[in-house]
Amino acid sequence: MLRQLRRRWIGLLLALPVLVTGPLSLPASSAEAPLSTESRAVASAIPLEEITATTTQVASGLKRPTALAAPDDGTGRLFITEKFGTVRVYDPATGLASAPLLDITSQVDSSDNERGLLGIALPPDFVQSQQLYLAFTALPDGAVTLARYSLADARLEVLLQQPHADYTNHNGGQLAFGPDGKLYWAIGDGGGAGDPFDSGQRTDTLLGKILRLDVSRSCGALPYCIPADNPFAGVAGARGEIWVWGARNPWRFSFDPADGSMWVADVGQGLWEEIDHLTRDEQPGTNLGWSCYEGPQVFDASQCSSGARYRAQDFYYSHYTGSCAVIGGQVYRGRQFADLAGGTYIATDYCTSTIWALRPDSNGVLRQAAIGQMPTQVTAFGSTPQGELYVVNDLPGGLHRVSFAHTTPTCQVAVTTNVWGTGMAVYLTVTNRGTTPINGWALEFPLPYGQAVISDWNTTLTNIGDLYTASDSGYNSAIPPGGSITLGYLASHTDDRSAPGRFLLNKASCARTGS
To answer: CBM2 domain spans which residues (predicted)?
Structure first.
């Protein structure tokens, strides 16, 4: 999914990867009370590989849904934005209402694939104010727009616009109120390919940024205020609204209600998709690296500065299995599956629909696993006030509830590493935890960027990009129930000495232990 010619069917609003040559280096009841802070902070101790996520469709008939939000008003409703400028209401008791909650189609430029009504956020005082916030591309010229809408009198008030006329892609659009009550808004780098405006590494533009605004009041001529503790507030030549910079198209970000950390999913150019987990302390002024970097790799050396500090990615994956655009999700903090998935961040990819699960372990190491498949072309996640997760998908346009189940992988991979200088040896012990013999095996895993295999033993290693497959050597092709085989490889490394983070044995996820 690397080239523009696939843009005809890829679907809605995502920065489709374009292969560009650059310098290559290295359902709870609505009546339930929200969880307490103490309850939210508890993370499941069950390994990620023992979790399976599934979805259940609860509504159909949506027209290219793009985002969803849930009012904390005891109704159990979900508000769902549609690309063309409407907001629909889903009620778990009565289903999807035919009449929209609001209709601003006359204001929205929904031309091309990525323009339209892109985001929605409900303020903490929504029940009293009956106001909500919308992000959309506006007529007549596609300006990326933040507006406040009053349900009481159907009044739309534009608060901030960023010109975006040259290209129709990379509009961002995510809106969310943070734990501090401020409104956060993501805007893409201006579109095209390769950051033609050098937006990512500039602070004099809102393109390629996540903004932080105080929309509860106005300051001077602005219908909002720039918080005094924003990192560029008062800095000459910089936009004070900027909170996080160096982004390409941060289509979806979210806050963990337990600790206020921010999870940012930034859609890649043509090689890498990335997810960044920013604590509250490190968020202000974080530089995600685009377009000096795409994921872990230098993309455009001319955009790299010797004095800059770029934030390394917490998770990244390549396009070699057909991936095309990361769809950032949320940390599960609901009650129904708390013992199983509590504290787990869930995301997906628009093209492969793989469900990614990420969660820090007790040592702060971010564990990763693929735990299922989403419906085709998911565009956004949302959660109820009680923390239960939902997703919407683009075509054919449905709403789906996310559930989790405990499963037992039939394989386990124990990892041991021996690292020195610029080299490392990695030993993988594969155990058959099932009840039937394995006759013939292939172990798949991604190699961290900057590592290269020099030799291997007890297997034959092949690769496509960063994805490696270790196949049996004939004499060790049979693994009886409870039996194990050990294989390994010698590799060089640059600055990443980590072992592979996830494994598939004959296409099935394996439990992972060790370093």
So the answer is: 404-513
